[in-house]
């Protein structure tokens, strides 16, 4: 299945040679790694990976194929895929396509035969780095010079968010879902709970959202630096006293910024389906799916009305907060991804309980 040789060149001059699969195109992006043993289809289609070249630490990728039901978005926007070995003949009753076929269709290049362990150790030691996937004929020194002059985009949320509002599903609690780069799993969890979901763009104003008469507002995951969308932060700040809010990943970071906390870029981020997180309210540890390059500064929470609710067992970073005065809470990880598989489902139920209490309180005031 390999059609031509390929190389991954990093901005520090490191070169990894391998074999091509996927699309025959050149691609530049931020090189990151994912530690999940499964879930490569969900990962490649997760909008939070917009602009990134994903290295999979698990050595065999593509072994159960690709199917039409497990995409997180219909327009994946990763820049490339790096694997030790790619499976050309998947074995699974749900498989409809090979990974190679899908990446070709999507215009995404892949490189196999890479020492992904060495690449991951480099990222862990020195942090995420710019890289380029291209054919072996290109001069590495010239590519390094290009990379060092390349400025990666900062408008990832604008790229991944819907451009206009639309009704999604359900007839229960009215949830306005602010799309920052939404995974379909979030919509699926809300739909399973019979929520009446309306999806709006990331730059929808608080007035536009409140005109939809929400019982709750959901802030989704999304790519990039949370400080790149100040208009969304301002909207959330205005919404916090008015309506229950649940934030996931990027939504968590934006709630924290809106409340006055700070965020910072992690050295190499958290990406995988096996990250232990401790719930400080219950003492229990959940196995979580994560994908983020930024985190909320725990020390900065002391100057806000937020309190820490969840913490990473790996590096003690912030994994969840809740508001002391209003029914607003968030987590850094992805409860809809079900890695546990159901460790974090209670968060959606908590959101429903907050909306029910909000409706009851509003009814008592009107009575």
UniProtKB/TrEMBL annotation:
Gene3D superfamilies, A to Z = 3.40.50.880, Carbamoyl-phosphate synthase small subunit, N-terminal domain
Q: What class of enzyme is it?
A: ligase
Output one GO BP term. L-arginine biosynthetic process
Spell out the catalytic residues. 249, 334, 336
Which Pfam family, any one, appears in the UniProt record? GATase
Q: Where is this region: CPSase?
A: 1-173
Reactions catalysed according to its record: L-glutamine + H2O = L-glutamate + NH4(+); hydrogencarbonate + L-glutamine + 2 ATP + H2O = carbamoyl phosphate + L-glutamate + 2 ADP + phosphate + 2 H(+)
Carbamoyl-phosphate synthase small subunit N-terminal domain segment(s)? 4-134
So where does L-glutamine get bound?
A: 48, 222, 224, 250, 253, 291, 293-294
Q: What keywords were assigned to this record?
A: Amino-acid biosynthesis, Arginine biosynthesis, ATP-binding, Glutamine amidotransferase, Ligase, Nucleotide-binding, Pyrimidine biosynthesis
Pathway(s) it belongs to: Amino-acid biosynthesis; L-arginine biosynthesis; carbamoyl phosphate from bicarbonate: step 1/1; Pyrimidine metabolism; UMP biosynthesis via de novo pathway; (S)-dihydroorotate from bicarbonate: step 1/3
EC?
6.3.5.5
Q: Enumerate the GO terms in the molecular function aspect.
A: ATP binding; carbamoyl-phosphate synthase (glutamine-hydrolyzing) activity; glutaminase activity
Does the keyword DNA-binding feature in the UniProt annotation? no
The record's note on quaternary structure and interaction partners says: Composed of two chains; the small (or glutamine) chain promotes the hydrolysis of glutamine to ammonia, which is used by the large (or ammonia) chain to synthesize carbamoyl phosphate. Tetramer of heterodimers (alpha,beta)4.
Spell out the family assignment given in the record's similarity comment: Belongs to the CarA family.
As for what it does, the entry says: Small subunit of the glutamine-dependent carbamoyl phosphate synthetase (CPSase). CPSase catalyzes the formation of carbamoyl phosphate from the ammonia moiety of glutamine, carbonate, and phosphate donated by ATP, constituting the first step of 2 biosynthetic pathways, one leading to arginine and/or urea and the other to pyrimidine nucleotides. The small subunit (glutamine amidotransferase) binds and cleaves glutamine to supply the large subunit with the substrate ammonia.
Database matches in NCBIfam families: CPSaseIIsmall, PRK12838.1
Q: State the protein's name.
A: Carbamoyl phosphate synthase small chain
Q: Which organism is it from?
A: Psittacicella hinzii
Q: Which gene specifies this protein's sequence? A: carA
């Amino acid at each position: 299945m390999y059609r031509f040789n390929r190389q991954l060149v990093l901005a520090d001059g490191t070169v990894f040679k391998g074999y091509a699969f996927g699309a025959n195109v050149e691609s530049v992006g931020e090189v990151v790694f994912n530690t999940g043993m499964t879930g490569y289809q969900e990962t490649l289609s997760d909008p939070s990976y917009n602009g990134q070249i994903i290295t999979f630490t698990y050595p065999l990728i593509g072994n159960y194929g690709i199917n039409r039901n497990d995409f997180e978005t219909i327009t994946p926007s990763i820049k490339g895929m790096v694997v030790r070995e790619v499976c050309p003949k998947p074995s699974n009753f749900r498989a409809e396509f090979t990974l190679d076929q899908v990446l070709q269709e999507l215009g995404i290049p892949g490189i196999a035969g890479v020492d992904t362990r060495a690449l991951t150790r480099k990222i862990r030691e020195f942090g995420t780095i710019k890289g380029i996937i291209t054919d072996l004929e290109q001069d590495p020194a010239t590519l390094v010079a290009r990379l060092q002059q390349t400025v990666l985009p900062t408008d990832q949320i604008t790229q991944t968010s819907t451009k206009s509002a639309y009704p999604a599903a359900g007839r229960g609690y009215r949830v306005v879902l602010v799309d920052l780069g939404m995974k379909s799993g979030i919509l699926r969890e809300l739909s399973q709970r019979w929520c009446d979901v309306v999806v709006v763009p990331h730059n929808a104003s608080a007035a536009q959202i409140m005109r939809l008469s929400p019982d709750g507002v959901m802030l989704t995951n999304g790519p990039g630096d949370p400080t790149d969308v100040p208009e969304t932060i301002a909207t959330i700040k205005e919404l916090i006293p008015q309506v229950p809010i649940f934030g996931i990943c990027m939504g968590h970071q934006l709630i924290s910024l809106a409340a006055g906390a700070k965020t910072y870029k992690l050295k190499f981020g958290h990406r995988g389906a096996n990250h232990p997180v401790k719930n400080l309210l219950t003492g229990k540890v959940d196995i979580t799916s994560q994908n983020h390059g930024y985190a909320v500064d725990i020390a900065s929470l002391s100057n806000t009305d937020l309190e820490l609710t969840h913490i990473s067992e790996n590096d003690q970073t912030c994994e969840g907060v809740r508001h002391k005065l209003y029914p607003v809470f968030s987590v850094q990880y992805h409860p809809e991804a079900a890695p546990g598989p159901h460790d974090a489902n209670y968060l959606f139920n908590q959101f429903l309980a907050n909306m029910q209490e909000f409706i009851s309180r509003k009814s008592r005031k009107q009575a």
